[in-house]
Fold this protein.
Amino acid sequence: MIGLKYRHFRSLVPIRILATQTFVGRLRWLRWFKPLIKLIYRLGGVIELPPENHSTGFHPEKIRGLLVALNQGDVVTIFPEGEIWRKREPPIGEFAPGVIYLERRSGAWIMPIAVFMSEQVWPRRQYVVRFGEVIQSPKDLDFDSAAAWLRERVLELYQQ
């Protein structure tokens, strides 16, 4: 979200972002900074995921905070891959069904966004952000199929 120009950012405020509080793998070193990270989360209006219990599958309690925020009229930013995607091909990973659950439970519309990043260039990276038209998933699809459908819409933005 920091790649947005100021006028775009201000039009979306308050933006709520879902973030982890479980730092594992390459992020394990962040545990030392957890109190500071929690303070930054609080100041930024971040919605924390419940502590990870390594169970698989979709659990509505993981995104309860986002549903509350949507029902209060907040704008919510979701990275539906559920992880940081580092590959260039394809530019995005598989989408988790939680984004569709949120859409259907709240009645919110989805605005697909594609973010292109340049290589590190002095003094900073360059970003290009492409916004799609607001959409809603087909109601006849189950959560997993609708998440795959949404992923295809986002991939179309990358191909344009």
Summary: The chain has one domain: 6-159.
